[in-house]
Amino acid sequence: MDIREISKALPDLTLEELKQIEDASLEKSFFLHKITKGDVFIPREESLYLIVEGTALVYAYTDGDLEFNLEFGPGECVGQLGAFHQENMDFILRGMDSCTIVEIPIQKAMMKTNIHSLVSIYQRMLTAITQNLLKVLKSYGAKVNFSNEQYLLNFLISKGGSYTITSVEDLAQLLHIEMRTLQRVIRRVVDKKVIEKDNKTIKIIDMEAAEKIVRF
Q1: What is the spatial distance between Cα 114 and Cα 19, in angstroms, rounded to a whole number?
Q2: What share of the chain is helix, strand, coil (3-state, %, to 5)?
Q3: What's the pLDDT tens digit per position in 82-129?
Q4: What integer pLDDT is reported at residue 168 of this predicted model?
Q5: Distance CA 77, CA 51 (A)
Q6: How many CB atoms neighbour CB 5 within 10 A?
Q7: At a CB cut-off of 8 Å and minimum separation 6, what does 77 contact?
Q8: Hey, is 108 helix, strand or coil?
C-alpha cells in the first residue's frame, strides 16, 4: 500500500504517524486483504489485522487445545496480543459474505519507529485488547451459565434482536452449539413465537418473552 492508501484505510492515523511510517519505509509492509464467504485467511504472527469492512469469524487455538470462535466487525482487530506477549495462539479468519482487512506490520513498526510518536496507536491496541477480552468473557460466561435456548436468545438480544446468518453451520460454530442441537433449539423457540426465521434472518418478535427466558 502507498501512504495515501494507508491514510484512506486508517483515517485515525495522524500526519505525524503517517510520516513515521513513511520515514521508516513501512508503507510497503501494509496490505489490504479482501476475503469472501468461505475464504480462509491465516494471519502472520508479526502483524496486526484491522477489519475495516464486513465481518469475519475468527477462530483462535491455544497450545492447550482451547478453541475460541468469535465474530469480528469493522473497527475490531486481531493479533495485537502477539505484540506484547509471545503466546502460542493460532488464528484463522474466515469471511462472512465479504470482508476487508488491513494488515499492519506492528512488530516492524515497534522496532523501526519512535514509540513516542506512535503513542495513540499503542493506546488503540490496548483498548482493542481490553475489548476483545471482554468479548470473550461475556460470550463464554454466558455459555457456562445459560441453557442453549437462553444462550441463543442472549446472542440475538446482543445483536439488537436480529441476526442474518451465512448458514446454520456458521452460527453453530460461532455459538459452540452442535448444529443439529441448534436447529432443534431454533425450531423450539420459533414454536414458542419468540423468534421467527425468515430465510437467513433470525429475528426476535417478542422481546419481553425473550428477555424473560434469558433472565430465568
Answers
A1: 11
A2: 45, 25, 25
A3: 555 555 567 888 887 789 999 988 888 877 776 665 666 667 777 777
A4: 87
A5: 6
A6: 13
A7: 48, 49, 50, 51, 125, 128
A8: helix
